[in-house]
Every structure is written in structure tokens, then in C-alpha cells.
Write a structure and sequence with these properties.
single chain, 125 residues, mainly beta, four-stranded antiparallel β-sheet, 11 strands, globular
Length: 125
């Protein structure tokens, strides 16, 4: 599985950005897709994920109510709409994919097998 992420950039605090990630796979029906991020000097952390089969979504507490993960089936693409961005959201964002995502482990970095290249999001104060 190859993942191609895009959409990062520079935005002022309070602004919005939308990240996209397209998967090169025959079908996503058994997969979950999501996003992690890594800020300078910090560990990589879970942001959001979606289980493709039923559309269930999962979010880190730090982004609930501000970020929304969604999908476009025909394009095999997952999106991360980021609103009300804060300087602490500054990070490299990584798209991830894995077969058989479940709620209890979705936030664990080690369960995600496929990683895309990162896309940098910078939020200025």
C-alpha cells in the first residue's frame, strides 16, 4: 500500500487547512486510515482515524471538535479537515493505513503498518 499525502502549509492561528491522503490499493474495505503527527522535539502522536468498512471515526482528545476525518470512496482518499488551528498543532502530519483497525488500539503507533510521507503544517501565532 502506498499513501500519498498533501495539503500542508502555513496558516495563522484560528485558520483552517485540509489534508488529503490517497491510497494505492485495490480496495479499502478491510482497512482503516488515519493521521499521526510529530511536532519538533516530541514523539509522534495519534490524531484521527476512520474505519473504512463502517465509517467509524476516532479522535485524539486534543483535536476533538476542531478536526474532522472523512473519506471519498471513489478516490480511495481520506481527508483531515483542520479548523481553529492552534500553534501547538504545528507538526509534520503522517497518513497511515492498516488492515483491521479496532477502537482499542487505533491510537497506538505500532499497529499501523503503512505510512505515507509527512506533510508539514505550520500554525503561526
Amino acid at each position: 500500500v502506498q499513501l500519498q499525502a498533501s495539503g500542508g502549509g502555513l496558516v495563522q492561528a484560528g485558520g483552517s487547512l485540509r489534508l488529503s491522503c490517497a491510497a494505492s490499493v485495490r480496495t479499502l474495505s478491510n482497512y482503516g486510515m488515519g493521521w499521526f503527527r510529530q511536532a519538533p522535539g516530541k514523539e509522534r502522536e495519534f490524531v484521527a482515524a476512520m474505519r473504512w468498512s463502517d465509517g467509524n471515526t476516532y479522535y485524539a482528545d486534543s483535536v476533538k471538535g476542531r478536526f474532522t476525518i472523512s473519506r471519498e470512496n471513489a478516490k480511495k482518499t481520506v481527508y483531515l479537515q483542520m479548523n481553529n488551528l492552534k500553534p501547538e498543532d504545528t507538526a509534520v502530519y503522517y497518513c497511515v493505513a492498516q488492515i483491521g483497525v479496532i477502537a482499542t488500539t487505533v491510537s497506538r503507533r505500532e499497529v499501523w503498518r503503512y505510512w505515507g510521507q509527512g506533510t508539514l503544517v505550520t500554525v503561526s501565532s
